[in-house]
Amino acid sequence: MECSPFHRCGSCWPDNCFALQNYTRYYVKEYAQINGTNPEDTRNKIKAELQARGPVACAIGATKKFEYEYTNGVYSEESNLESNHIVTVSGWGVENGTEYWTVRNSWGDAWGETGWFRVVTSSFKEGNGDKWNMGIERECYYAIVDASNL
Fold it and tell me: Distance between CA atoms of 27 and 16, rounded to whole angstroms?
């Protein structure tokens, strides 16, 4: 479907796409990848960034099972799929002794927990959670918005 005025769609539904008419343009002042020396260090650095500046963008290897079958709860699925989707990690918690990330997806409010999902951290399965959380901690970035021209 062609959208106007920029021939880019701002939002789409299965049968309809439309361009955004009014939007605010934001500029990034600083950004960096969040890296640690090991999974625990990376996990702690992500938590520190969440506390210091807020949500971080992370890549995941979203599986078909995750996309089509997840509805709620703390998700875990063994997989080694390469990154194919970007999500926003906004927090973390613990449920029944399992630590998880709280994550905003871009697939709309009808998906998951009103557009959100929870997925195990790398602490899952005695520190092997990276194999069970779609690699969410492998490629995370923070950005600082330049508010000087807002």
Answer: 29
